[in-house]
Design brief:
alpha+beta, 4 helices, Thiol Ester Dehydrase, Chain A, 36% strand
């Protein structure tokens, strides 16, 4: 069981393990989302771009981040819903073969009558410790049953 709202502490920090982004990830995400932008799926097009190679979809990078949340386990079975995201920025590209990991910090709690909201500052970093994505996410979290 994960951590209930009452037990979450502002200032807590977590770091996930790494996840390598593969060509298969990009191809499957393109098929799932319908986003076949040539920056993601066309090697020759991407080679001529400012990135010089194919890059992962921003939405794929964000989706991997949510999987890294789950891998940490601290909110497993206590998150009611994903409430929203603010201040999302993709500050560096994610390339095929990059290994990204998540560093997060609980930055705010908002008590509600039957549940609570927690605000998480998320930083995704690649294997060179370069930030590739940052955002604040808000999760709706269970309170203990009284």
């Amino acid at each position: 069981m994960g951590t209930f709202f009452e037990d979450v502490k502002v200032g807590e920090k977590y770091t996930s393990s790494g996840r390598t982004i593969t060509e298969t990830d990009i191809v499957q995400f393109a098929g799932l989302s319908g986003d076949y932008n040539p920056l993601h799926v066309d090697k020759e097009y991407a080679r001529k771009s400012m990135f010089k190679q194919r890059i992962a979809h921003g939405a794929l990078t964000f989706s991997v981040m949510t999987g890294l949340w789950d891998s940490l386990g601290f909110l497993r079975k206590t998150v009611i819903a994903f409430y929203g995201v603010d201040k999302m920025r993709f500050v560096n590209p994610v390339y095929i073969g990059d290994t990204i990991h998540l560093e997060l910090e609980i930055v705010e709690k908002k008590d509600r009558e039957k549940d609570g909201l927690i605000v998480i500052l998320n930083r995704l970093l690649n294997q060179k410790e370069e930030e590739v994505m940052v955002c604040e996410a808000v999760l709706l979290v269970k309170k203990r049953e009284v």
